[in-house]
C-alpha cells in the first residue's frame, strides 16, 4: 500500500457483548480541506472508505463467560488468563473470516486496531492523581482483554491495542474514545451536533460547527457517558424472564402500556441520580449500570415471567425505557447550559436506535425539554459525504485509531477526557 493510504482493520466487542464487529477501511488524508488542531498538534482530515463490514455474533457460552468476568470479583487468575487468550483467538478468526467472505487478501492489510473486550473501567479520582499518597481503595484503572499477540501471531499482521490506558495515566477518563471520530469526521457546517451512541452504555459527543472561528475547535468538544444505553432495559428483561428473553424488541412491551411506574422511576433516580448530576467529563460502565443492581431493584416485585403481554412486565420495561431517555436528555441540558448552545441536531447510532419506542420517547422528551423541535437523524441519513453504516461506526473508530497511531498523530481530546495533554493512543504488537 502507498504511503498516503493504509488498509486498516477495526475490531471490537462492545459492552452489550452481542457480537464481534470487524470493519476494513481504506484511509488516507484529505489534501483538499484545511487541517484541524488538537492543542498545538495538526491533524489532516481523514477520508475513510469502508471496504468490508461483518458482525459475528458471540457464541452463547462465550457471551456468558464474558458477562461472568464483568460481574464477578472472585474469578481466578487462570480464568482471566484463559479468557484473554480465547477472546484474542476469536477476534483473529473473525478478521480472517471477514477477509475470506469479502475476497480480501490478508497480506493487503497494513494494520489492525483492536479495542478488545472491556472487563472493568473504574476511573474516579484518587489522591495519587493529585500528587498525594495513593489511596489503594480507589485505583483508577481500565482493563480490556483479547490478547493482541494472539491476533498478530495468527494473522501475521501488526496490531494496535490498549487504547485507553495512556489517557487514564494522564488523569483522563479514557473514554469516550468515539470523540476523535466524531470530531474529525462528523462536524456540521453551521450548527452544533450531538452524536449519541446507545450501546450497553450511552455516550454523547457535542462537536462545534465547522465555521466556528477558533483554531483549536477540539477545546470546545464535549464527550462523556450519558449513563445507561441498552444495559438497564436488557437486564430487566433478562432478569424477569429468567434469561428466556434478551431484550424488549423494538420497545414493543414498553409501548404497550400507558405509563411508567413513578415509584420505580424514583428508585432508579435514587440509585443512579448522582452519576447523572455529576459534571462532565465522566465515564461509567456496567460496574454501575449492571445486572446486580437491576436484580436488587426488581427483587421486591417477585416477578418472573417470559410472557411479553404481562401488564407488570410491560410497565417495568416502560419505566426502564423512560429512565434511559431521561438520562440522555439530562446530559444534553448540562452541555447546552454550560456552553450556551441554542441550536443543535442529534445523530444516533448503536443498537438502541433499533428500539423504536426508545427513539420516540427520546424525541418527545427532547422537544418538550428544549421547547422546540430537535431533529434526530441516523448516520445513514447524513449528507455531504458523512453518511455511514451506523452499525459499523465503532469498528471504523478502531481502524481510525490504528491509522492515527501509524501516522504518529494524537488521538485523545483532553477537553473531553480530562487528560493533562494530548497523546498518541495505543501500543503496538509487531508481527514478523
From TrEMBL:
<dbReference type="GO" id="GO:0009254">
    <property type="term" value="P:peptidoglycan turnover"/>
</dbReference>
<dbReference type="GO" id="GO:0006040">
    <property type="term" value="P:amino sugar metabolic process"/>
</dbReference>
<dbReference type="GO" id="GO:0016773">
    <property type="term" value="F:phosphotransferase activity, alcohol group as acceptor"/>
</dbReference>
<dbReference type="InterPro" id="IPR043129">
    <property type="entry name" value="ATPase_NBD"/>
</dbReference>
<dbReference type="Pfam" id="PF03702">
    <property type="entry name" value="AnmK"/>
</dbReference>
<dbReference type="InterPro" id="IPR005338">
    <property type="entry name" value="Anhydro_N_Ac-Mur_kinase"/>
</dbReference>
<protein>
    <submittedName>
        <fullName>Predicted protein</fullName>
    </submittedName>
</protein>
<dbReference type="GO" id="GO:0005524">
    <property type="term" value="F:ATP binding"/>
</dbReference>
Amino acid at each position: 500500500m502507498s504511503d498516503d493510504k493504509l488498509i486498516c482493520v477495526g475490531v471490537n466487542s462492545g459492552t452489550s457483548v452481542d457480537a464481534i464487529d470487524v470493519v476494513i477501511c481504506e484511509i488516507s488524508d484529505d489534501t483538499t480541506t484545511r487541517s484541524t488542531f488538537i492543542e498545538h498538534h495538526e491533524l489532516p482530515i481523514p477520508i475513510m472508505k469502508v471496504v468490508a463490514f461483518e458482525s459475528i455474533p458471540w457464541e452463547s457460552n462465550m457471551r456468558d463467560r464474558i458477562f461472568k468476568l464483568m460481574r464477578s470479583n472472585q474469578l481466578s487468575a487462570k480464568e482471566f488468563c484463559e479468557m484473554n487468550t480465547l477472546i484474542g483467538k476469536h477476534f483473529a478468526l473473525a478478521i480472517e473470516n471477514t477477509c475470506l467472505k469479502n475476497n480480501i487478501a490478508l497480506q493487503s492489510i497494513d494494520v489492525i486496531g483492536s479495542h478488545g473486550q472491556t472487563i472493568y473501567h473504574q476511573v474516579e479520582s484518587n489522591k495519587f492523581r493529585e500528587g498525594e499518597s495513593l489511596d489503594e481503595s480507589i485505583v483508577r484503572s481500565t482493563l480490556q482483554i483479547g490478547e493482541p499477540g494472539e491476533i498478530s501471531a495468527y494473522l501475521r499482521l501488526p496490531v494496535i491495542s490498549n487504547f485507553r490506558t495512556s489517557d487514564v495515566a494522564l488523569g483522563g477518563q479514557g473514554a469516550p474514545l468515539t470523540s476523535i471520530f466524531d470530531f474529525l469526521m462528523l462536524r456540521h457546517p453551521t450548527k452544533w451536533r450531538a452524536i449519541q451512541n446507545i450501546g450497553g452504555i450511552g455516550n454523547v459527543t457535542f462537536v462545534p460547527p465547522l465555521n466556528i472561528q477558533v483554531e483549536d475547535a477540539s477545546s470546545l468538544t464535549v464527550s462523556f457517558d450519558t449513563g445507561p444505553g441498552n444495559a438497564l432495559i436488557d437486564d430487566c428483561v433478562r432478569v424477569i424472564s429468567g434469561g428466556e428473553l434478551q431484550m424488549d424488541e423494538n420497545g414493543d412491551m414498553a409501548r404497550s402500556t400507558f405509563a411508567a411506574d413513578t415509584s420505580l422511576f424514583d428508585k432508579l433516580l435514587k440509585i443512579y441520580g448522582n452519576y447523572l448530576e455529576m459534571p462532565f467529563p465522566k465515564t461509567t460502565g456496567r460496574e454501575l449500570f449492571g445486572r446486580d443492581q437491576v436484580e436488587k431493584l426488581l427483587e421486591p416485585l417477585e416477578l418472573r415471567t417470559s410472557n411479553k403481554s404481562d401488564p407488570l412486565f410491560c410497565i417495568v420495561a416502560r419505566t426502564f425505557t423512560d429512565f434511559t431517555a431521561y438520562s440522555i436528555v439530562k446530559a444534553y441540558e448540562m452541555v447546552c447550559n454550560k456552553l450556551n448552545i441554542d441550536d443543535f441536531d442529534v445523530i444516533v447510532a448503536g443498537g438502541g436506535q433499533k428500539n423504536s419506542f426508545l427513539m420516540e420517547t427520546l424525541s418527545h422528551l427532547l422537544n418538550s425539554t428544549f421547547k422546540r423541535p430537535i431533529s434526530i437523524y441516523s448516520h445513514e441519513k447524513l449528507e455531504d459525504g458523512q453518511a455511514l453504516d451506523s452499525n459499523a461506526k465503532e469498528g471504523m473508530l478502531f481502524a481510525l485509531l490504528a491509522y492515527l497511531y501509524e501516522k504518529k498523530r494524537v488521538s485523545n481530546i483532553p477537553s473531553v477526557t480530562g487528560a493533562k495533554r494530548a497523546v498518541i493512543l495505543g501500543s503496538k504488537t509487531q508481527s514478523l
